[in-house]
Amino acid sequence: MLAVAGLVKTFASPEATGGRLPVVQVADFHLQAGEQVALVGTSGAGKTTFLHLLAGILTADEGAITYTLNGAATEIMALKEAQRDRFRGQHIGYIFQTHHLLPGLTALENVQLGMSFTGRAASAEWARHLLEAVGLGERMKYKPGKLSVGQQQRVAVARAVSNRPQIVLADEPTGSLDAPNAAATLELIRRLCGETGAALLLVTHDARIAGRLQRQVRWEELSQARVPARVDPPEEARP
Amino acid sequence: MTLLQLVLKNMRQRMLSTVLTTLSVTLGVALSLAILIIDSEGQKAFSQTDYGYELIVGPKGSEIQLVLNTVYHLYKSPGNIPYRVYEDLATNRESSADGTRNSLRGFAQWAVPYAVGDTWRGRRIVGTTPQLFGVDEEGRRLAPAKTPRYRKDQAYEFAEGRAFHAQKFEAVIGWDVAAREGLKMGSKFHATHGNSSANEVPDVHEEAWTVVGILRRTGTANDRVLFIPLQSFYAIFEHEQGLEAIGAIKGTGADADKKESHHEQEEKAYTLNADGTINVLLPKEKWEISAILVQTRGAFASTQLPFVLGNRTEAMAVSPSVVMSTFFETFLAGSVKLLLVISVLVTLVAGMGILVSIYNAIAARNREIAIMRALGATRGRIVAIICLEAVLVGLIGAILGLVLAHGMAWAGSYYMQGVLASGIGWWRISRGEVLYLVIAVVLCGVAGLAPAMKAYRTDVATNLS
């Protein structure tokens, strides 16, 4: 379903040499439909940048990212920015490390927001069903500020699958949660992906979390790029 | 969730900022529209072309004072003209042997004299003839062509009663006088000489006029007027000339103590017949009037009469519509235009307020924009959200401004009604207003472009990290 080939992403070196620093260098990566894979590695090694590339938020310097959905292959690096945005809205669910909910919207509205950019009619019924599925049926009208961190992340999970994506990209979704909440949230993500048939690529630095998924891929083995210290790439990260 | 719902949520989230920005647009729009209303409706009110008469004949001097005094019953009379000017105008050419070059005969289809100087409770009393109300001195109805009009095709109508008798102490009152001052059919009132100031003892005449007719509302300053017979006006005539004239008749002359004994002299200014009619002692050749309303026999007469009068010394003829439109253009239109420029600047400042408000909000909403982008919102969608917010603020501000402006116009109209008995069409929305509203909303949308472009450039990856 997802095939990555010869993917390279570099950023300007923070040093004054003017050189480019490779952050992502993935020769080959595949993900099957419905497969649940953990991408394990240390923080700041380029995993988030890899997810941004897969989501089409960033563009690669080299390589191809091809999605094969319903028999049709789409190479998203060949798409224009607006097309990539629409592709993301229709086919990809994204879960951030912190929930990234809109503070002015209720839990229900935040989930509906995930359906707003799909080009399809947003169903309030489906959004309610998802919130009930994540155990927040009683708190649909609550704004994020009135929810606990764990509850906020569960709303974010519901939002990520609200557009019925073919793939969910989860970037350290349990990173800000305590152990019991982390375990519960992971199960929730797995269950919802299973129910909706979405593939899951979950980035984590926690081996225990990774161990619960079908397959584990070590980032250091996947990417040849070696980021020496923490690099703040987004200076040049504009698509 | 639709785009509009999302925008409304954003606006609600920043309620204070949204309210203040909308308020600034409201005030800017209201100010501009109020000025546009003054411009259009004020011009209509003061530069009307539907006067029921073409010319006003009055003393030489200020044309605007003559028109304001005669049509709107404002300010003091600019002076008097001999009654014989009216007689001359009112006489048919056919019935006269006067063929002199400067004769006024034959010009008028109808002419009505006005004599002013007295008031009742601050409301003007006008001495005139029954002809003003469509009847002759014997109370017979006049032919339509001879019936005076206060507006084009609009003659006075009675709500109650009839026209006064030409030689009795009777009165016909305007609608507003009856409605606000409580005068009814059969009520009596005493006239006050002039319009006494606050620290002055009012000089009230002894004669009492009886209300015999109440006019229907005309929507003009005439609604505030009490009309009395011209002859009864001379019966209490106490102006210098009148006293002197009466004194001359009686052989006493007007001496230094005439002021103190004027009531005694008033009693001698007329005699009362058994049937209640009066005989004025002041000879007609000494009568003076303030103005004459004249409807001419045609276009030639209306252009010739002012020239003919121009060759005489005692009077002039002016066209009220020309005088008022010149007055409006000279004194009011310039000020209105200046105010309009100021109000447009206020609207521009309000537009800048939108720009600053949304721009600052965007700086605080970078993360939200990045989240929406990550969820699949295109840059175009983000720009649309920001611009729609600006347009909505502009639209709400424009609608509230429209309501406020017309509310102010209503208040202004109410005030004018009290002063002139003639308001303005405060409810009318002119084309200029609609155009201004469209421009204001578009301007607000344009003001939203700068923050929209800032949002357009929001870096997703940076703001998600």
Oligomer type: heterodimer
Strand portion of chain B, in percent? 15-25%
Mean pLDDT of chain A: 87
Total E-strand runs of chain A: 9
Class of secondary structure makeup of chain B: alpha+beta
What percent of the residues of chain A sit in helical stretches (DSSP H or I)?
25-40%
Which stretches of chain A are low in confidence, meaning pLDDT under 50 for 5 or more residues running?
Answer: 233-239
pLDDT below 50 for ≥5 consecutive residues: which ranges of chain B? 249-263
Q: Order of strands in the sheet with the most strands of chain A?
A: 6-7-8-3-9
* Order of strands in the sheet with most strands of chain B: 3-4-9-6-8-7
Task: Give the H and E element order of chain A.
Answer: EEEHEEHEHHHEHEHEH
Q: Specify the structural class of chain A.
A: alpha/beta
Please tally the helical runs of chain A, counting DSSP H or I stretches of 4 or more residues.
Answer: 8
Count of alpha/pi helices of chain B: 15
**Succession of helices and strands of chain B:** HHEHEHEEEEHEEEHHHEEEEHEHHHHHH
Form type of chain A: globular
Would you report the number of β strands of chain B? 14
- End-to-end Cα distance of chain B: 26 Å
Strand content bin of chain A: 15-25%
Give an account of the 3D structure.
The complex is a heterodimer of chains A (239) and B (465). Chain A is of the alpha/beta class. Chain A has helices spanning 47-55, 81-91, 107-113, 124-133, 149-161, 179-196, 207-211, 219-222, and strands at residues 2-12, 20-31, 36-40, 62-69, 72-75, 92-95, 167-171, 199-204, 215-218. In chain A, the strands form two sheets. Chain A has a five-stranded parallel beta sheet with strand order 6-7-8-3-9, with helices on both faces. A four-stranded antiparallel beta sheet of chain A has the order 2-1-4-5. Chain B is α+β, with helices and mostly antiparallel strands and 465 residues long. Chain B has 15 helices and 14 strands. In chain B, the strands form three sheets. In chain B, strands 3-4-9-6-8-7 form a six-stranded mixed β-barrel. In chain B, strands 2-12 form a two-stranded antiparallel sheet. In chain B, β10 and β11 form a beta hairpin. The longest helix of chain B has 45 residues, at 320-364. Chain B is elongated and about 105 Å long. At the A-B interface, α1, α2 and α3 of A face α1, α11, α12 and α15 of B.
